[in-house]
Design goal:
The complex is a heterodimer. Chain A has three domains: 82-153 and 351-539, Rossmann fold; 171-344, Dimethylsulfoxide Reductase, domain 2 (3-Layer(aba) Sandwich); 594-706, Barwin-like endoglucanases (Beta Barrel), CATH 2.40.40.20. The N and C termini of chain A lie far apart (60 Å). Chain A is built from 25 helices and 30 strands. By secondary structure, chain A is an alpha/beta fold. A seven-stranded mixed β-sheet of chain A has the order 5-4-18-17-16-6-7, sandwiched between helices. The longest helix of chain A has 19 residues, at 94-112. By secondary structure, chain B is α+β, with helices and mostly antiparallel strands. Chain B has a single domain (3-178), classed as Alpha-Beta Plaits (2-Layer Sandwich). Chain B is built from six helices and nine strands, in the order βαββαββαββααβαβ. Chain B has helices at 17-22, 59-62, 90-94, 116-119, 126-130, 141-157; strands at residues 3-8, 35-38, 47-50, 69-71, 77-80, 101-103, 108-110, 136-140, 174-178. Classes of the chains: A alpha/beta, B alpha+beta. Chains A and B meet through strand 3, helix 1, helix 6 and helix 7 of A and helix 1, helix 5 and helix 6 of B. Chain B: Residues 3-33, 43-74, 76-105 form the 4Fe-4S ferredoxin-type domain. Chain B: This is Fe-S-cluster-containing dehydrogenase component. Chain B: Pfam families: Fer4_11, Fer4_2. Chain B: Keywords: 4Fe-4S, Electron transport, Iron, Iron-sulfur, Metal-binding, Repeat, Transport.
């Protein structure tokens, strides 16, 4: 059992017969600090207590966080391995399940080659597990096909940051500095709903006079408190960012000294942005000219500003371009690498940051190394104890794997900590591809929509039944503690990986007895890479409230602010983005005359596999809905609460209407947390960003139909 | 206890963490005693939280024919005492803020008690502890006064001055819930 930490001078209610275990929430990238209440006699989780002393969140939690503990001892938990026999799941022993997996995996690989197996990971789990997924695919199974759900979440941010700054850490500054900023330019982020506890920092700054600019097609709870709300059309961020930069240059808000010293491509950027006059920008984005001008002046005049964005700008075919352009806005103002200013993306998944750094991605190895760089392969092979030539080649991105399933390149699959038949775009196609697999193994603790399709479901543990670290929204490595022993016969993912690898005769590469051993290996594997965790230890995390990577040496305290002197590019200079407007992959037509965008609600997390099982959250938001403007509803003679049909060339859904003026007149919004016929991802467009291979969830052309009574 | 529950409606993001957290308080029987509503969803996403004002002379206690609603020495208005409550629901009609709720199964009223088991130890109530945007706070009387003056100051900084016709915009929309006599 983990030790129990409480800080001096922090008062918490500790009831008789109970103890508090200090940990973090399992959901989004904020990784809010919390104590879990455990009954000492029964050793069961009984509730939650705020962790007032956690430096980033100060005890605050959203409704998902407050109820997170309810998923631990939940009646729906899978407690034994399930094997599908005659179309029905039958509980079985681990022995039987592993026997079957061994036989099928070996059979498939003998017949069709090593690469016939695929591994589909996720980043709602600890660094230790995420790191091991990459190693499991490459060493345990020997396949090149590994990718993860971060392709739907963070890969455009990663692509954009790598391109402009040379390194991808979600935030260039620690968020405890945010209260000292003067301006936040937030684009495509509904942080009030998706990262609710971050809002305290914006209010702290706002109370001191900071300005907030929000670009979003909806007047979200975040946009509602903004000084300027740029209500742009989905998919037009490239134009907006160029338009703002045009004005920054025109009104001399550019920090020329900084740009000259630390950035490339300014002349080219000036040339491209020249045509993005407020009028032209307004024509493309649908935002009023005055608003664009006002936003540019506020942003330009602020001595300390932070440009922030999230999936709204990233889940587009021009996701990487959008990230690069918004980052360039901060660069033009000379903000990156300075106090209380910089650029940041809102990490969507709990360990979206750490999970993308350590080789779970088709082209990546631990420490942000690249699998197509022989030097990187040599180093990591050394750590893993394999020969460099044994390292499989680069695979394909998450969505592209379904194409390979369809054409039978991939015949077997292990899905770990993910629910792709809900979270992928165009799920009618994805479901068919998954159904066509010869053999599917899913590790999960609830029977997700993906697990339903599996041949074998392995019972994994929840976050509270295992130790480890995650890396939060700021790039701060933090500790997740074990609260209770695993329920039933469930096992942590690292142990499942170890067991299967043993069956594949690769046990010697996975000889771990606890997560700390995996972390120590990860520290070495990431050493010398961009995301260097070598100096991060469990003890240091406790001592100093988390450790910011990079921490390259044993005695390093970590690096809260990055890029203070130079960028991580080859020449140490940032590359300003020189990109013209391209627009979304799909255009409106006579048949599909409206825009559809998707996103989250505050009550649910990702594919909803966890939050759809929590009573309070389901009471608040039991089903998907479509938000539309009263003017649009009136054109179609639709009333509030009425069910309507939405369709795109890929699928259709029937969904009740919520009418509100807090959305553009030509855009509709549906949250994506539900599966099967309730899933908006039946409609979404799988067009991929050319660099990040991230699908365009945020924009598609849609047809709205009133149902006849 | 010399603390104040301080609500700032403008900050509410409608996440209802306060409601979820209310259920977590030890004596709350997993039933929330506060609520969050949209002002008018058709117009905007503005929501507001509401919890017990802990009135000095509470209507709920006044209309209780059984004297079941007790007020602690600190001024916290408690739920009806189980042995006294006759289940008449007068309190639920009497309260102008719609705070007392009725448990039809147990035939008794329950309401916000400001997490008395926490606040009497000077630990913030669950709702104020978790509220992500500080729309609900549990603060000292002096801090409350300071916050109100701060609002005026911010208006001056931003060059806002009340005009005839919009004076009401300058009345702070936040207010305190007093738990102690401050005279």
């Amino acid at each position: 059992m983990s030790q129990f930490l409480v800080k001096e001078g922090v008062k918490n209610q500790i009831r008789q017969g109970e103890k508090l275990v200090t940990t973090h929430c399992c959901y989004c990238g904020m990784q809010c600090g919390m104590h879990i209440r455990v009954d000492e006699k029964s050793n069961k989780v009984v509730g939650v207590e705020p962790r007032y002393d956690w430096v980033l969140t100060k005890g605050k939690m959203c409704p998902k966080g407050v109820t997170a503990y309810q998923t631990i001892d939940h009646p729906d938990r899978i407690k034994l391995p399930l094997i599908k026999k005659n179309g029905k799941f039958v509980e079985s022993s681990w022995e039987e399940a592993l026997d079957l997996i061994e036989r099928k995996f070996k059979e498939l690989q003998e017949k069709y080659g090593k690469d016939t197996l695929g591994v589909y990971g996720g980043v709602s789990m600890t660094n230790e597990k995420c790191y091991l997924v990459g190693k499991y695919a490459r060493v345990g199974l020997g396949t090149r096909y590994v990718d993860y759900n971060g392709r739907y979440c963070m890969s455009s941010a990663a692509g954009g940051f790598n391109k402009t700054l040379g390194m991808d850490r979600g935030s260039t500054l620690p968020w405890t500095e945010l209260e000292h900023s003067d301006c936040f330019f937030m684009s495509g982020t509904n942080t009030a709903e998706c990262h609710p506890t971050s809002i305290q920092w914006f209010w702290k700054a706002k109370d001191k006079g900071a300005k907030i600019i929000v670009a979003d097609p909806r007047e979200t709870a975040t946009a509602r408190i903004a000084d300027v709300h740029l209500d742009l059309l989905p998919g037009t961020d490239t134009a907006l960012a160029n338009g703002i930069m045009h004005l920054l240059i025109k009104h001399d808000y550019v920090d020329y000294e900084y740009v000259q010293e630390r950035c490339n491509n300014f002349a080219e950027l000036k040339e491209v942005t020249a045509k993005f006059t407020p009028e032209y920008t307004s024509k493309l984005t649908g935002v009023a000219v005055e608003k664009i001008i006002k936003a540019a002046h506020i942003f330009g005049k602020s001595p300390r500003s932070v440009v922030m964005f999230a999936r709204g700008v990233e889940q587009q075919v021009s996701g990487v371009d959008n990230v690069s352009l918004y980052t360039s806005m901060a660069l033009l103002r000379g903000q990156i690498g300075k106090f209380a200013s910089g650029v940041a993306t809102f990490t969507g998944q709990g360990n979206g940051q750490g999970g993308r750094e350590h080789g779970q991605k088709a082209d990546a190895l631990p420490g942000y190394r690249k699998i197509n760089d022989p030097k990187h392969v040599e180093y990591v092979s050394g750590v893993w104890g394999i020969k460099p030539e044994e390292m499989p080649k680069e695979g394909v991105s998450a969505y592209e794997m379904f194409g390979l399933m369809e054409n039978k390149t991939i015949r077997g699959m292990h899905v770990i900590c993910s629910n792709p038949v809900v979270s992928s775009p165009n799920i009618n196609y994805v479901t068919k591809a998954m159904e066509g697999l010869d053999f599917l193994v899913v590790s999960d603790f609830f029977l997700s929509e993906t697990a339903e399709l599996a041949d074998v479901v392995l019972p994994a543990t929840t976050w509270a039944e295992d130790e480890g670290t995650t890396t939060n929204i700021e790039g701060r490595v933090i500790r997740i503690r074990k609260v209770v022993e695993p329920i039933g016969e469930s096992k942590p993912d690292w142990e499942i990986i170890k067991l299967i690898s043993e069956r594949m005769e690769k046990g010697k590469y996975f000889d771990y007895s606890e997560p700390r051993e995996i972390f120590d290996e990860l520290r070495v594997a990431s050493k010398g890479g961009k995301a260097d965790y070598f100096g991060v230890t469990y003890e240091k995390i406790d001592e100093q409230d988390g450790v910011f990577w990079p921490a390259p040496t044993e005695d390093s305290k970590g690096t809260p602010s990055i890029f203070q002197e130079k960028f991580a590019t080859e020449d140490g200079k940032a590359n300003l983005a020189v990109i013209d407007y391209r627009g979304p992959a799909e255009v409106k037509s006579k048949e599909f005359p409206l825009w559809l965008t998707t996103g989250r609600v505050v009550f649910h997390y990702l594919s909803g596999n966890q939050t759809r099982r929590v009573g309070f959250l389901m009471e608040q938001c039991p089903e998907p809905f479509v938000e539309m403007h009263p003017e649009l509803a009136s054109q179609y003679q639709i009333e509030n609460g009425e069910k309507v049909k939405l369709s795109t060339p890929r699928g259709h859904m029937i969904v009740p209407v919520k009418i509100t003026k807090a959305i553009r007149k030509d855009v509709m919004f549906v949250p994506y947390h539900w599966g099967k016929h309730q899933s908006v991802n039946q409609l979404t467009n799988p067009a991929l960003d050319p660099t990040s291979r991230m699908p365009e969830f945020k924009v598609c052309a849609v047809k709205l139909e009133k149902l006849s009574k | 206890m010399n603390k104040i529950m301080y609500l700032e409606f403008e900050r509410c993001i409608g996440c209802r963490a306060c409601q979820a957290a209310c259920r977590e308080c030890g004596d709350h029987d997993a039933k929330e005693r506060n609520y969050v509503e949209y002002v008018d969803f058709t117009e905007s996403r503005q929501t507001f939280p509401m919890l017990c004002m802990q009135c000095k002379d509470p209507a709920c206690a006044r209309v209780c024919p059984a004297n079941a609603i007790q007020i602690t020495e600190e001024g916290v208005v408690l739920s009806a005492m189980e042995e006294k409550c006759i289940g008449c629901r007068n309190c639920t009609f009497g309260c102008p803020f719609g705070i007392p709720k009725f448990d039809f199964e147990k035939n008794k009223m329950y309401k916000c008690d400001m997490c008395y088991d926490r606040t009497r130890e000077d630990i913030a109530p669950m709702c104020a502890s978790v509220c992500p945007s500080d729309a609900i706070r549990f603060i000292d009387f002096d801090e409350m006064q300071q916050l109100r003056r701060r609002r005026t100051q911010m208006n001056l900084v931003e060059g806002k001055k009340p005009q005839e016709g919009n004076k009401w915009d300058y009345v702070p929309e936040f207010f305190g819930v007093y738990t102690d006599s401050q005279s």
